[in-house]
Amino acid sequence: xxLRLVRIDDRLIHGQVIAVWLRALGGKRxxxxxxxxxxxxxxxxxxxxxxxxxxxxxxHDVAAGAVRLMELAPSPEPVMVLARSxxxxxxxxxxxxxxxxxxxxGMGAGPGRKRIHRTISVSPDEIRDLQAIEKLxxxxxxQIVADDRPIPFHSVVSGE
Length: 160
Hints:
The protein has 160 residues and is α/β, with parallel strands linked by helices. The protein contains 7 helices and 9 strands; from the N terminus they run E-H-E-H-H-E-H-E-H-E-E-E-H-E-E-H.
C-alpha cells in the first residue's frame, strides 16, 4: 500500500513533516485532505510552495480526496496524507479508503481540549472520532517523528 503515512496535524506542511517524515518515507507526493483548505486558493498555494522541490502537493476536499486516495492506494508510489482533524480521516475511512494506521501529529491546545501527549490535545468529539476510526480497523498511534516508538492512542485515552 502506498499510503505510507496518514497523519493528523493541524499545521499540515511544516518543518517536521518536511525534514523528518518525508525523507524517512522517501515520498514525492503529499496529499492534503481538508475542506476549508481546498476552498482557500491562497493557502493551497502557500502549502504547495512549502514543499521541497520535486515533491508534488495535492489539496482536496473530503469527497475528492477519498476518490484520489482510492486511486493512489494500490500504486507503489509512497504517499503522505495530511489532514487537520480526526473527522476528516473518519470520513475517508467511511468512504472506503484503506488506511491501516493514522499518526497523530500536532493537535493544538485550547478551551475544551485535553492534552494527551506533548503536542497533542483533543476535544471530546475528536476522542469519539478517533475511537470510531479504531472500530473501523485502523490503528491510531502517536508518533511525533519517525524515530519515535509509536504509542497506541487507546493506551493514552481509555474509557473516555
